[in-house]
Amino acid sequence: MKTLIYIFLGLAILTPLVIKFLQHRHLYPFMPFKYNFRRRRVTFAKVLRLLNERQAKSIIETGTSRKGLDGTKSDGAATIVFGKWAKRNGAKMHSVDISEDSVKGSRAAVEENGLSDVVTVYLEDSLTFLERFNEQVDFLYLDSYDYSKTDTEIQHKSQVHHLEEFKLIENQLHQDSIVLIDDCGLPGGGKGKLVVEYMLERNWKILIDRYQILLVRK
Ligand SMILES: C[S@@+](CC[C@H](N)C(=O)[O-])C[C@H]1O[C@@H](n2cnc3c(N)ncnc32)[C@H](O)[C@@H]1O
């Protein structure tokens, strides 16, 4: 009887810990083990591999990491993750955001993580920024206009905005460019609905289709 009680207690203590461990989607060793990237882990890990293989030099992100590394589970913290990759690999990252608060949070995180020499955070509408940007882009990450799970008008505006972003920069993408779109696995098709349809008609193919959609050239 005593043994059974010990086994029961052991399981009651261990099971939640094991579940927590299995749900912990880390990017270790690239990022410290404590950060959980949840639904973005697989796509972020694949992008990091592709950036290495393709020796990317120029990264653009629309919608910046307003919460810095506190946002690994929610927003993604891409500015810091890919900024860190840029720092280690002699690349440059440009992150643009329309909100003063988001830019303030992101700039503080960039500074805190020692990335100020490689990551520039711009306070601007992504559309005017992309229209002006005239260099080649090796990795494009689209994650701006916040999506809504319930409001179909916001869903449509967000989808149109991400399509417009892509159209403004597509001529600076090349055969080895990588495109990642966030918040896709959501009701109504997510941020990527229109832009992915557009890309699939133009010689792009989907590499990973999960919460985020990752595309490369055919
Ligand atoms: C989900 S957050 C970005 C998260 C970030 N990419 C990360 O990985 O942590 C979306 C951001 O897009 C910004 N945004 C919304 N509309 C925008 C626009 N038209 N141009 C640029 N940024 C915009 C918001 O201010 C917000 O900070």
UniProtKB/TrEMBL annotation:
Molecular function via GO: methyltransferase activity
EC number: 2.1.1.-
Pfam families: Methyltransf_24
InterPro entries found in the cross-reference section: SAM-dependent_MTases_sf
GO terms of biological process kind: methylation
UniProt xrefs under CDD domains: AdoMet_MTases
Key words of the record: Methyltransferase, Transferase
Gene3D superfamilies (alphabetical): Vaccinia Virus protein VP39
Keyword field contains Zinc: no
UniProt-recorded name of the protein: Class I SAM-dependent methyltransferase
